[in-house]
Amino acid sequence: MSGGTWRSQSGGNGIDRSRPLGFCFDGRPYQGFAGDTLASALLANGVRIIGRSFKWHRPRGLLGSGCEEPNAIVEVGEGAHLVPNCKATQIELFEGLTAHSVNCWPSARFDIFAALDWLARLTPAGFYYKTFLWPSWHWFEPVIRRAAGLGRAPTATDPDRYEERHEHCDVLVIGGGSAALAAALAATRAGANVVLAEERPKLGGTLRWEEQEIDGRPALAWVESVTRELRSAGNFRGLTRTAAFGIYDHNLVALRETLERSSPESPRERLWHVRAREVVLATGAIERPLVFSGNDLPGVMLASAAMSYAVQYAVCPGQRAVFMTCSDFGYEAAQALRARGMAVAAIIDSRADPGSAAAAAHLAGITVLAGHAVARVEGSRAVRAVECRSLAPGAKLWGSGPARRFECDVLCVSGGWTPTVHLFSQARGRIRYAPELSALVPVADSSTVRCAGAVAGRFSLAGCLADGFAAGEAAARAAGAERNCGPVPSAPPRATGVAAFWSSPPLAHERAWVDLQNDVTRADLELAVRENLRSVEHVKRYTTTGMAVDQGKTSNMNALGLLADLTDRDISEIGSTTFRPPYDPVSLGALAARHVGAFYHPLRRTPLDRWHTAHGAVMQDFGGWLRPAWYSRAGITREECVRLEKRSARMAVSVFDGSPLGKIEVRGPDAATFLNRMYYNEIRTLATGRARYGVMLNEHGVIIDDGVCMRLADDHFLVSTTSGGASRIFAGFEDWLQCEWPQLEVLVTNVTSVWGTVAVAGPRARELVARLGTDIDVTREAFPHLSIRTGMLGGVLVRLARVGFTGELSFEISIAAGFATALSEELLEAGRDLGVGPIGVDALQELRTEKGFLHIGTDTDGRTLPADVGMGAALARKVEDFVGRRSLERVEARRADRLQFVGIASADPRVVLPVGAHVLKDSQVRSASAGYVTSSCASEALGRSVALGLVAGGRARMGQSVSVSADRRVWLARIVAPGAYDSQGERLRA
Question: Which pick of 274, 555, 778, 973 has the fewest CB atoms within 10 Å?
């Protein structure tokens, strides 16, 4: 089977002719072979127009053969499996593949919106900054937003699965070509733990289509030999179909692996987080196109891409070719295509003296025009012919010679090579312009990121091999490996001459494209310069050059060269744009990996989780924990259930699961000193067996957490934090100890999950605890408020603390997590005659609102200081330094009109003020806000509603009447002190 009308009957080292594959593109069936990409299969079937340009919907064909492709953007799959904006050059063909062109209607072959090209003169660069200002941008915004983008975003839930993995290694080699393989070979032989990541399905890079020799044998044979040696080594991991798209701090490299799927349930992609001691970048280089009139027509292709399709896939990109080059590689590609049956009409070289490469082409019977350039390409939907002219000295003007015309259906261009320095730039590496290479190359330094091969400006095979081997050996040595690496692979010399040539001299009223996908022309750059834009970053944003899906891989260098010519500056003066991750587009599914659905924010479960469910609890997310909001009862509403729970706490005794409360043990000779620095309150004077309420601040003096600090021994403290703050506060403790006070002898351990905690609260709490049979004396005299005792309960160690959040007599019983369920059952059984009942978080929140207890994050915001919540006096009493102290001494912290924590009593006791309602500066509905309600509820114990809030200068306004507004409604209220219930604390200390 031929597999396409343009497919050669033999050859193709990348395809398996015994496995034909059927696929569909734009509704038409085609056939290819296993190993094909969608691009090569379409080209083999004679499909020239694959996509449309973004702005003017001009027909576009293949330009490249890899991730540099700017034109062939398609969507793959249908329905829930739709994947938009894929590059046809990166899609491996499979049976039943369905793909469609994007940004066109009804198809790429015939696009109604191509009529926009007639309006090109009305839509130059930056027209959107000037055109849509009158009468209002909002008039045009809906239409512009609908026109933006290329493919369609899927609307159905993605059914595919994505994985995530972390890896550590000594040396990470990024790339799969000659330099990368040499680097991996040297590092592996040296004994380093090596990971190699290559974005293509097979290793070898350009060696798969460039016919060269290494160590006296064909390059592909060398690749296979090295691959076998590496894969047999126990210290090597090779990842193909894996693109490195970002380098971050401390050599953290993000990789996206596209997986071969054996079934629909198999994962589609895997995100790798690789932490490497040393990184070798062998990412190669991308061939540059050239700028001339009509250079965007289907049939204009990079010479390297044409060579790749011919050698790897046995696909001739056309029947008769013309080559336009300013480098020796153009001749090599022409000879390769000619050897595979393609007629080469001419090689047009911008260099006045091409050297030996041109002489060899002459001997082969190929017409070579030195000192010439393509002036224009003829054709409307594909290349039909090219016109070339001679260049004047300096190559910026046309010469006086006559124009020559060559009929052809493909024009292969080779403007030299652009090193792929994107990842090096992301790693904060410096880049310089090398005039001898007409390219930006990395500046070598002593960092742990090394560049080798073409990315470092070594374009000969011998140079790539030597450079890669040296980089791999040096990286392995830096990582501690010391074994002998063996001989360096060698290759015959190769001509790599190149001369800077960015663009043919312009022709009047004809367009030449710089960025093919975004429809940026040379005239757009000229306009930007005329409008006095000099910075390359400004020009990039004004013209959108390099901002398309390919991120300027084929356009950035030409844009820099043209900008240098237009402003009479050198490229080294202009500099380059900033390269940011991702290097190549990454699907949101890969970035999310398994962090979706229930895995997006995994909820922690308390030791009493099943116990709660068995007792009818309605479970909800509170601070990252799945906790009971309330306990449902048959035929009773939520509000009534919460009211009954509150009644048991106020009138009898309640049981509450406090296991999620943070429990951090701090031990060591300097434990008291450390905690005194971390707490706003005084901790050093805390007696053994006692507890103290305190708050913690950040460096800005803002309250970030509160809780009770308990002293178990002279050098042993237990810090209780909010449920959602345990991990954060623990990490903060570690940070301060490791980075600021490493001299302190302190050990910090997060034991939150080790202990289950059950809070017993209510007037009969002491009676219920006494029935448990513990050896701890719980009488009022022996166990006062804010005390902690350690003892035994049924042969199990417990910690009993006289603290609570309800405003009632409370005991918190902490026991090994595995015994928490048995403890809860025993409490319910022992207190059956006392009216005991479990309460949820909703009831607890209303109980603490009645009492006026502060809840961090609800009654505070990112600006709340201790003085704002009535704790300002502690600052004067504490003489030692602590985190945030300096910020509390600023003028801003002493302002009298700061938002302060107060109570808000509605004038109508039946009205429950909405949380978030604004306290107005005056009685007008549209008046400015002077604060807002933070907590609010109806209180059966008080016989009225109660609310808390943050109000500007609130404490100085006690007793004042205010207006509270929400949803265009206004209520009268009064500023009062928080803590309406048991304001003297008699019940709490009973």
Answer: 778
